Amino acid sequence: MDTGVDRLMLLVILSNLALLVAPRLGRAISLMALQGIFLGLLAIVAHSGTLTVRALVIGAAGFLVRGALFPLLLRRAAAQAGVVRDFRPLLGYVASALMGIVMLGGAMALGERLPLHLPEASKMILPASLFTIFTGLFLIVARRKALTQCLGYLVFENGIYGFGVATVAEVPALIELGALLDVLVAVLVMGIAAYRITEEFDHMDTVELTRLRG
Amino acid sequence: MTLAAILNLTLAFLLAPLLAGVIARVKARVAGRRGQPLLQGYCDLLRLLRKGVVYSDTTTWIFRACPIVVLATAVTAVFLLPMGGEPAPVSFAADFVLLAYLLGLGRFFLISAALDTGSSFEGMGASRETFFATLAEPTFLLGVAALARKTGGLSLSTVLPAASPLAPEVGLIVLAFSIVLLCENARIPFDDPTTHLELTMVHEVMILDHSGPDLGLLLYASHLKLWLWSALVAGLATSPLVAPIWLRPVIAVAGTLVVAVGVGLVEALVPRLRLMRVPHLLATAAALAAVALILVVR
Question: How confident is the model at residue A111, as a pLDDT?
Fold first, then answer.
């Protein structure tokens, strides 16, 4: 826990824990934006010393798209649907915190043992990215509202972004930006779908949607 | 026992009621009032010791034994407390387990006496207190385990001076211990020590039936517990400071007073949590301590 990158990854881990327990969608969106900013910073400092134009472009794209654009889209969708919090999530505060600790332990154990080209900057980048991926998947599974699940997908994408920054040093900027564009389109589509669901059913509780109407 | 350890003990026993006065004064100042005198805690203790005591017909020996056991465990726990970089008067490997169990023994007798009165209000307070303790004690043990692993020592006296709060893990543990301090000492946001509504009491309602010297003993024991926890948190926070040997008790006492001022500010500015949200805050503290442990163990 000596280097600045280590502490940045600790901030990412804490933001994930906060995401797991955040009851209100607004706060969860802010946390996801914060994560995007941290990971954008990571892209710039991870390959320490070699500050290439590629790293700057990817970092800036990460900042803008994950830190500003996605939260804006999600907030607008939430305002349109009138969603403030995820009532009665499938796993409550204490259970989510407990699962978060278990997932953190798993991510730490896994991150140290994967046979990958590890970045020299920090031993914590891989475990933190894995933890972000697990958090995103957990949010998709353990929450009811469609918008919270979309948020979980975005957190999952944050984690994959961090993973890519850490392990793959030579991928051209075009591919990274292409992946980012894919995620943007996915968010737009999910926003439209959430809006349509709310229009049709007056709620976006996905557990209710699985029940057949008499 | 060295001279410094005796000095630390004396300071703890003499200055513990001052902390409550400091907290009340800070609360009053933030609210724009003048507040009670700083030495009010001592006056309260003397007044209670001079009064007569009333025992209910429904109570048994447990009720009479409770204040004695609670005070005895609190006093013994202070003997395990290291202050100002000086080892505690009694220290051995894994003495923090004894500390946790001493405080648990005191709490057990407090709860038993509350149930002994046969009053449903006190039973309600007892059940709430047990619930909070169930979540707070593992946090303490997780935090101390992380500190022990990080510094390589097994006793509070070796662990506390060696753990510098500049490391992020220790910072997390200081935060978790601060939350546990507020819970163990029945402070806002867990419990309001000045409430007069029985439905909102937790600690106050358990000692509702005690009177006179019994209440005085319980009050002093709660002061000692507050001193214990404040000195623990202050010791963790000020451990990197190097000072000549005559300055160390001053720094320790000053740190403890600063923690008390912090508690007073929290009491004045933060509302008391809804009862359903209390486990959430304790789960947060436990999660922080667990994160620190995972970071240290990897």
Answer: 85
Chain A residues inside the 8 Å CB shell of B150: none
CA B37 to chain CA mean position, Å: 22
Give the gap in angstroms from C-alpha A94 to the nearest C-alpha of chain B.
6
Structure-block tokens of residue A127: 């475990």
B25-69 pLDDT per residue, tens: 999 999 999 989 999 999 999 999 999 999 989 899 999 999 999
Q: Give the nearest chain B residue to A7 (CA atoms).
A: B168
CA torsion, ordered A12, A105, A4, A153, to nearest 10 deg = -20
> Closest residue of B to A105, CA-based?
B294
Q: Is the dihedral of CA A136, A141, A142, A143 positive or negative?
A: positive
Q: How many CA atoms lie within 13 A of A206 on its CB side?
A: 16
Asked whether the beta carbons of B296 and A110 are under 8 A apart, the reply is: no
Structure tokens at A22: 């955040």
Q: Where are the domains of chain A?
A: 4-207
pTM: predicted TM-score of the whole model, two decimal places:
0.90
Interchain CB distance below 8 Å, A10 and B295:
yes
> What is the ipTM metric for this complex?
0.86
Partner-chain contact A97 B279, CB within 8 Å: no
Hey, what are A90's tokens?
A: 């499938």
- CB-CB neighbors (< 8 A) of A7 in chain B: 168
